[in-house]
Predict the structure.
Amino acid sequence: MGKKDKVRVQICVGTACFVQGGADLLLYNEFLDPAVLGGCEIEGVSCIGGCKDAQSKERPPYVRIGENVYGSVNQEKLCKLLAEATRA
Amino acid sequence: MNDLFIDVDYAQIYKDGQKIGGDVFLLSRNPENNQIVCTLSDGLGSGVKANVLASLTARMAHKLSFSPMDLTHSARIIMNTLPVCKERKISYATFTIADLRMLASDQVAMNLVEYDNPSALVFQGSTSVQWNVEHIDLQRDGAFKKEVLGHSLLTLPIGSRLVIFSDGVTQAGMGRSLPLGWRLDGVREFTRTQIEANPDISSHDLAQAIVCRAHSLDRLSAKDDITCMVVYVRRPRRTLVVTGPPFTKEHDEQLVQKIKEFEGKKIVSGGTTAQIVSRLMQKPLKVDMSCWSPQVPPCSMMEGIDLVTEGMLTLSKVATALEQKKPVRSMTNDAVKKFIQVMQDSDQVHFIVGTKINEAHQDPSIPVEIGIRRNLIGRLRKALEDVYLKETSQEYI
């Protein structure tokens, strides 16, 4: 079996996300399980654009994991989401 | 905005043990006719008494040089006004006045008046320039010595420097390392090597270097006040700050064109704006996760742009730090620090402000700091102009 591809994770660092919890997510080195962290490739992104969708039920901060965008992410939710994503 | 910039700064070390200087430096800019007047005066003695004499002299010389009055008449008034020293029974202070006016032809006209200070030095690049000085004998009633004013009219092209200093500089090291002190030739040679080693050295750094050298010749215990002033005529360093997306999409292309055409440093402040610029310039945007703080989102990197930051939060923190004159070295390494460093290294800052409203910022649950972009730019410009004496301009798109 070949080496498993890392999960691509983008944390939004746009203004709206950053002030509503995004700053906490940037501390991922501190709260994520090292095993999970090893399976991810985490980067920042200027704006995912989720905050501009008035119809959306989700709220900032937004995180993109693979192809999916998740809203209202906090540290706990990010741990859960990444644990699932790296297991899959 | 002007295509010419006159960089003036000075450095000073007081005589050892003194808390106040007998050398006084004054600088005024009159933006209406692009005139700059700088005055350096050295009062008799040291400490408070010398400071009073020098302050009086410098202030009078300064004010009078803005008036149309004849120069020799002004000098007489100054000398007649100075109080008499109790011990020495004479009234005395030296002065040098440099009156600089920008000419349309990329040059600066200088009217230099010297009285008893060491002769000023002029450099074109790193070569010392000699010029003719007209000597005017004052022949004042009550003079205790021959009073001769040196008057010269010079034209300073781009790349020239004027260096003025008090006798604390030329006499540094006297009787110690050097029998007669550093002397004019020593200062000239030192300044030449400094400029040669660093052709773009700022007035601040050059003045500082000369003063520090004089201080070390005096074995770090100055025998007199050491003051040096430098004027540097050069092209302005320009910076462009782009913040906010244009009001309509059709203007995006125009914005990017303006960025491409701009000569100088470029800052893009705003996530969406950065994405527009990145898309149209076809350069990828990469968030630099190594530089952020809980208050300020991280910077990004993009080829062709010197600094890419988040918008409103960063700008608001920059405006506050500039207004409070926070020293850069005490700041954490984040986007605000980088932004301020670029601002301080610029002479002219041009803002292009996008007027599109960000729907995401209208949410009442996000902090009040995220106000109205135009107000924020107004604060920034005011701080840059009032506190840091930068030239600023702006346009909306």
